[in-house]
Amino acid sequence: MCTHHHNPLQCIVPPHMAENILDKGSPLQIERVQQNLNEATLLRDERQAFAKTSAKPTATAGQKDRKIYDAQNGTRLPGTLVRSEGEAATGDTAVDEAYDGAGATYDLYDEIFERNSIDANGLQLVSVVHYHVGYDNAFWDGQKMVYGDGDEDLPESDRLFNRFTIAVDIIGHELTHGVTQYEANLVYQDQSGALNESFSDVFGSLVKQRINNQTASEADWLIGEGLFTSNVNGTAIRSMKNPGSAYDDPVLGKDPQPGHMNDYVNTTGDNGGVHINSGIPNKAFYEVAMELGGFAWEKAGKIWYVTLRDKLSSTSDFQTAADSTVEAAAELYGKGSDEQLAVRNGWQKVGIDVVLDLDAEEGNTEPEDGTDKSGNRGCLNLGGLFGK
Ligand SMILES: [Zn+2]
After folding, report:
1. How far does the centroid of ligand 1 lie from the alpha carbon of residue 357, in Å?
2. Which helix (H) or strand (E) covers residue 213, if one does?
């Protein structure tokens, strides 16, 4: 699936799921995963070729500009242009879902955060659907989104994944990898990588919540609901509300996400657990949004967006993210505001303490015990792990 180590693709389906399928899947399911793993080499070559094609995204200041390509179940990217901005629905479900999802994501960033596309400068949103046959993933490759059709070609009883455009939060997730790339550019490894994943889940979920007009308490906080077929015992690939509870399945295994620093997973797999420990900042965001109430994109989302845009750098860890969101909340809503306290409380609930820097006349807040619960392992080995 997404196993590049030198130039990691940012995929929605994490490697631990593929490993479980290899271990416990049916012969056809195992064959599928092996085929998807072989894809990785092909993709790297295609990505290099894509950089030279006319489909390279361009910036058109101030406008939503979507392009949807159909790879027609081949591996050559981007494929045939099938829908451009303003054109009517094609009747091809994947094409139209990719178009609508990219639009909903653009609108969240534009209307709520006053950001004009991924690069804040009107970058064209390029999506490719029907990538190869039986491709069980979706990814942002640094320039565009690519979606597989899932297992629709397999016999009913072997199908695990539906088409990858089915969940709008997956689309928002992938596009947010682009935003992160242009802003904090969080290295896709260890805690900075888990933050990269978490920001994608946060804004992906906000895209979904906003088109459903749901408050924080009405939202399901699931990522990728609808992606699994009915053969899978699970509701989604991740739960921000209750990390670790999204699925527990004989073939896919159990959702490994922790929701607290006490359960932080130290692993060399999955780029140091980027899809695993992202459960911790995901849960923190959920707690903040719930304490603030109302629509999560209005306050919690804004605080997280300003943090991603202005405060984090490529090697930021969880503690830095926590400190920075508290700082952003103070700048947006005031020191000691309910918003700032909610952000502090949200991180506290996942085991990350932030010392508030309140004005002197307000005195010091409760003393912290000073222990570092961030799980920061200090030295990131970054050799060759940058490109996206
Ligand atoms: Zn991702």
Report:
1. 33
2. none
Find the helix or strand (DSSP H, E) in which 254 lies: strand 253-254
Place of tokens 């793993």: 37
In the predicted structure, residue 202 carries a pLDDT above the cut 50: yes
Catalytic residue among 275, 287, 327, 339, which? 275
More confident residue, 57 or 275: 275
pLDDT digits (tens, 9 = 90+) for 114-165: 999 999 999 999 999 999 998 998 988 888 999 999 999 999 999 999 999 9
Does the annotation count 85 as an active-site position?
no
CA of 24 relative to ligand 1 center, distance in Å: 24
Angle at which helix 318-333 crosses helix 190-211, to 10 degrees, equals: 40
Question: What is the CB-side half-sphere exposure of residue 82 using CA atoms within 13 A?
Answer: 23
For β-strands 10-11 and 80-84, DSSP reports them as: unpaired
Pairing of strands 80-84, 66-70: antiparallel
Other beta carbons within 10 angstroms of residue 86's beta carbon come to 8
CA–centroid distance, 156 to ligand 1, in Å, is 28
Residue 372 pLDDT: 38
Sign of CA dihedral 140, 141, 143, 146: negative
Distance in Å, CA 10 to ligand 1 centroid = 5
> Under a CB-based contact definition with an 8 Å cutoff, are residues 204 and 171 in contact?
yes
Please state, in angstroms and rounded to a whole number, the distance separating the CA atoms of residues 277 and 80: 38
**Residue tagged active-site, from 39, 46, 97, 174:** 174
Q: Is 275 a catalytic residue?
A: yes
Q: What's the whole-model pTM score?
A: 0.88
On the CB side of 287, CA atoms within 13 Å amount to 24
**Omega before residue 258 within 30° of 0, cis:** no
CATH number of 10-184: 3.10.170.10
Q: How far is the CA of 197 from the centre of ligand 1 (A)?
A: 5
Are the C-beta atoms of 159 and 231 separated by less than 8 Å?
Answer: yes
